[in-house]
Design brief:
Layout: H1 9-12, E1 32-35, H2 37-43, H3 51-64, E2 68-72, H4 78-89, E3 98-104, H5 107-117, E4 124-131, H6 134-141, H7 145-163, E5 169-176, H8 183-196, E6 205-211, H9 218-231, E7 238-244, H10 251-260, E8 265-268, H11 282-290, H12 303-314, H13 335-355, H14 392-403, H15 409-426, H16 432-443, H17 446-450
Parallel strand pairs: 1-8, 2-3, 3-4, 4-5, 5-6, 6-7, 7-8
Amino acid sequence: MPSYRYASVYDRVEVPLAERHWPNAQISHAPLWVPVDLRDGNQALPDPMDPARKRRFFELLVAMGYKEIEVGYPSASQADYNFVRLLAESDIVPADVTIVVFTPARRDLIERTVDSVWGITGDVVVHMYTATAPTWRDVVLGRDGAELRGLVLAGGRDVLEFTGEAGNIRFEFSPEVFNLTEPDYVLGLCDDMTRLWDATPERPVILNLPATVEVATPNVYADQIEYMHRNLARRDSVILSVHPHNDRGTGVACAELAILAGAQRVEGCVFGNGERTGNVDIATLALNMHAQGIDPMIDFSNIDEIARTVEYCTRMPIHERHPYVGALVHTAFSGTHQDAIKKGLAEHRERALRTGRSEREIDWRVPYLPIDPADIGRAYDAVIRVNSQSGKGGFAYVLLTEYGLDLPREMQIDFARRAQALADERGVEIKPGELYDLFVATYGKGALNAS
């Protein structure tokens, strides 16, 4: 493979930090979450959401507890404009939910974007973006650094002009492809915007720093975020936001390290939809925090209903191995894993009885299961399933949980040998009913009472 054609990130952009603090930091609370499924996620779909699907997705996000939602790109399509107008002219936006609309730094498109939000009585964020990295400046926009700075400032002034005295509208700026932009150039541009928009602690400006195309290991992105965090001119008047993509498969790690480095806000999609390999998966990110004892402030207690809604709205399936939500993520086929899970679940039940507390209240210590499936609305019936890779513990667990058959150890060993032979012969998963039939055929119905 011609790997010589590709430059290291260290040859493409200066990585600014020599002394870093983020490796010693710990995540202690959830960031501000901003789902962009209705804009960034929607524009990546082969079949964009129709109005009914978009409304259903919006209502799902509200029900889950998101307080800031990017709802569209109103200047890009009539459908997006109409959806924002629906929000403005109806009562489906709760008073405590902020609406975000997205626009390029172009006067006519800014005007249409601002026009779309008139009538929304709650908080609104106008989110302006411009690509800033050298390749984008040279190849896509045909402007040098000074010319691009002029374009961005002109867009910022247009935002001020069209929003006027509207006290409910705040501002967000994204230097698109931040992660490939010269650090001092993008820092100066962000300081220009907070000065132009008069950022104050009472009315902060959101500076959103995207890894628009993921090109480096997550530690590099963390260094870039920490550099901005430590050097922005009006840091107490800025909400520092990140928007990682997943081109290298490390979008979640990029976001976690960015939070360590000073980010306060994360944009992404529920289950990670988005252009190419997707945006950062804010469901995985939130449940990773849950698994560390941090309240993500978002409700995933019925994850299967969330998944059904997302699949319906996007018309795209969720992979069976997708973290937390996939159909197989809480399932063990391996014999050693099954044995450990079976013993862990038994210890969990016994400890709850011994302490007189609910199984849902006591510490979770079950091997191979990072969180209790019940936390996200899953039952234990699919935790252990059996095939030719399974051991005696797995076969015995299925018979116990499905049919109340508690096999003595000697019978477990004998039955496992027979069940494995059946599984080897079939070459597929053995269903509980087939195991039960094998048990009866082997030991007779009288063994049902003896076990």
